[in-house]
Task: structure prediction
Amino acid sequence: YDNEGRITSILTVARDITERRLCEQRIMHMIHHDQLTGLPNRVFAGISMEELIDRARRDEGKVALVFCDLDNFRAVNDTLGHACGDILLNAIAMRLKKTCLRSSATFCRHGGDEFLLILDGPVVRDDILRTITDIRKGLEMPFDINNQPVNISMSFGIAVFPEDGDNFETLLTKADTAKCRAKEFGRDTHCFYADKMNRRMNTSLHILTDLKQAMVANELQLYYQPLIDAKTGAITGTEALLRWEHPRKGIIPPLQFIPTAESSGLIIPIGKWIIEQACRQAAEWHKQGMTLRVAVNISPMQFKRGDLVETIRLALEASRLEARYLELELTESVIMHDTEETLKMVRQLKRLGVRLAIDDFGTGYSSLAYLKRFAVDKLKIDRCFVRDITHNADDAAIVRAIIQMAKSLGIVTVAEGVEDRETLVLLKDLGCDIVQGFLFSMALNAADFAIFCEKHSATFMVG
Ligand code: C2E
Ligand code: CA
Ligand code: CA
Result:
């Protein structure tokens, strides 16, 4: 008021309110968003989930909560530093927000390397899986962190309203549990909480019961694919690949039943059989003058449970195969679980004298430190890098870098998925030691493999 009683400062008051509202908005934004990535945060996720659950309850709809956790993020932090870790988290958030997610999906940061994805509307298994596939695709291209390519994958745990719970906290706990299960199966995978959805799918194919019978009925077979010395063309070894010769369905490829074998624990007895069978077969071939090394795929679950060291020791003893002729193919995820247990087990295996190869190299995040620490003998460069090297300069650069790095560490390199001659020539130029792929042969049963060896040449060279 002025001294005549007239109001003078109304405008100021109005501005104050606006400012306060802006300020409130800013604070609400801060409370609801993550500082680093600008994504909605856990608080926002909770509020929004509760609202969606309320609505779904009225409409008899569904809401899915997907717990997304980066694989091996700690290794990125440890090797590149926290600042780079932050840059990576931000880059992941940006890319996924921009390219992979529909408008009906809410993508939030839960904290650390964990994200939450909320899906509502007509949420069925396929919708959820499609979104997860979109995210996976989005992560396929490496991130450029300070001029270094970094590959990262995610594991997903899924919980759904109303099946798994009727409030945010419950669903979050269950999605988290499912995520942990997904991690146990190896990186880069997903898992539903109740497993109702999973189970329904599996039992409809009767895979599990069939698989149990398959073991008893001797329907499981090892097929063998040659590993060829890139320079001389000699056969240096063979990779044992599992096949299921189903009486009605024909030959079933491993990717159709190994996940079930893993989630049910059946992979432990099956894996034991694979090791025994591979040793027996290799010893048999040795007797016939085919002195080659046999490589066996070891699933992460076998590494974690089951007495792998003892299984291998006994298999070598029973078959009388020299340990150096057995090679174990481990995925990066196995050695990235850098626990004392892992290290102890690797040491025991090395002490037995078996060789260690890292399978699908490049798809996870292995650092030099890990390769050295675990005294890895071989790196198998993943097929996805090898496939296009003659057309894609980036892939060629990645393969070149892997080979050079391996050389400097005294590690042998294998390129998988070699399908044509140009690729072979380029790999040879890049200094790759061993090649494997349909150019030479697909996996063959033991008898056909022996015939292939006979035809191919009489030269064996253990690489
Ligand atoms: P992997 O270890 O990466 O095995 C190589 C896969 O690539 C095999 O598929 C092989 O047949 C295929 N392959 C070989 N050469 C070429 C090529 O030139 N082009 C293309 N496109 N593919 C090629 P397969 O036998 O279907 O095995 C798939 C995966 O299943 C394996 O991938 C491995 O992760 C798993 N697996 C196979 N056998 C076993 C086993 O005995 N135990 C365990 N735990 N896993 C196994
Ligand atoms: Ca393999
Ligand atoms: Ca592989």
